[in-house]
Target: PilX/PilW C-terminal domain-containing protein
Amino acid sequence: MSTIKRISLKYQSGNVLLVCLALMLIMTLWGVSTTKNVTLTLESNYNARMKQLSFEAAEFAVAQVGELIENQITSTQLIASSFDGSEGRYSLVFDAANEIDFSFPADGDFEYKNEKAWDTGRSDMSFIEIEYDASFEKQPLAIVEYLGRTESDDDGPQGRYAFRVTAIGWGVEGLASTVIRTHYAFSI
Model:
């Protein structure tokens, strides 16, 4: 008969314990690292989604303002009366005294890329407020500027009427924002 030699736990050295503890430490660090990476990935995906939603809101605002000016501006007299600095409508066309009519704001400096410039509480500017989605904390805002005619010759301005639309949209919680600026030109 053969005899099986039994190893008694009391004779094991501390090396096995150290190896087990080292493996446990490595596995713990790996688990924490993986959890941290997953969390960062989820946050990154969330931020990307909010940025996309802010872009969609700004894009919607640009489209709404484009429709608004094409449907409401049906004569040159309406340009002069509509782009008076109120309701987010401004004009960058020079008057007879060669001064800009109804520029924005009073100092002529509007940093449209700066989110703080879009404060609806400003006394020197007004914005077109667009109804987008009630679940969004902040609704999109826009301004439209009349830029004048697209062409000019010796007889004066000719061609289509040009407008610049600048809009900002925010994500659901109002933390991510996107600004879009585009130009429209059409004949009256």
